[in-house]
Amino acid sequence: METKNMMIVGVGGQGTLLASKLFGRLLLDQGYDVKVSEVHGMSQRGGSVVTYVRWGDRVCSPVIDKGEADFILSFELLEAARWMEFLRPGGRIITNTQQINPMPVITGAAEYPQALEKRMAEAGVALDAMDALSLAEEAGSSKAVNLVLLGRLSRYFDWPEETWQQAITASVPEKFLELNRKAFHLGRNS
Questions:
Q1: Residue ranges of domains in the chain
Q2: How far is it, in rounded angstroms, from Cα 30 to Cα 76?
Q3: What is the pLDDT along the chain (190 residues), one digit of tens a residue?
Q4: Angle 31-24-56 (CA atoms, 0-180°, nearest 5)?
Q5: What's the CATH superfamily of 4-136?
Q6: Measuring CA to CA, which residue among 182, 105, 127 is closest to residue 150?
Q7: What φ, ψ does residue 169 adopt, rounded to 5°?
Q8: How far apart are the C-alpha atoms of 168 and 162, rounded to whole Å?
Q9: Which end of the chain has fewer CB atoms < 10 Å from its terminal CB, N or C?
Q10: Is the pTM of this model over 0.90?
Q11: Which of 31, 35, 27 minimizes the C-alpha distance to 170?
């Protein structure tokens, strides 16, 4: 199998690292060679967080270059726009429509860019945008955006929901398991 690439992008504290761990486990369970590379940035201060996930028969490097990502899974709208140049032609961005102000916006040095979904569409990006935050809250916690987005991502793969649920069970602490299963299900079926 040709190597496939996904970037998981967001803001520190949104659960991007759990999402990459869970997706990596799922891929390993499916028999793929998997490489995951985490770039934390200013994650503890609300800064950008990026994780590269690559899978295939044999993967030599965890790094994804511009124009190579088959998927970008974005936890925040501006992060989707920021990383879209990494998307390959024919690739897809799955994004939460939530907007989290970066530090320059908070301090008044800049304004949050407007009409980002429209701009990405005009740039030819295949965009699957959803209000993952509302679905996470419906599942029981705003912190479950990561599982809502993984649920949406699962629609682009041929694996049954049970395969994904097994990876969730293996990756999430038991006390949060039901909440995360529900968030995944809502994302998959929304």
A1: 4-136
A2: 29
A3: 799 999 999 988 788 989 999 999 999 999 999 999 977 555 455 678 899 999 999 999 999 999 999 999 999 999 999 999 999 999 999 999 999 998 889 999 999 999 999 999 999 999 999 999 999 999 999 999 999 999 999 999 999 999 999 999 999 999 999 999 999 999 999 9
A4: 45
A5: Pyruvate-ferredoxin oxidoreductase, PFOR, domain III (3.40.920.10)
A6: 182
A7: -60, -40
A8: 10
A9: N
A10: yes
A11: 27
User: Residue with structure tokens 């299963």?
Assistant: 181
Cβ-count burial 128-167 (b if 16+ within 10 Å, e if not): ebbebbbbbbebeeebbbbbbbbbbbbeeeeeeeeebbeb
Residue type, 125: V
For the chain, the first-to-last Cα distance in angstroms comes to 30
Q: 3-state DSSP call for residue 114?
A: coil
User: Is residue 91 a contact partner of residue 69, using CB atoms and an 8 Å limit?
Assistant: yes
- Chain centroid, CA 96 distance in Å: 9
Angle formed by the axes of helices 177-189 and 145-154, nearest 10°: 40
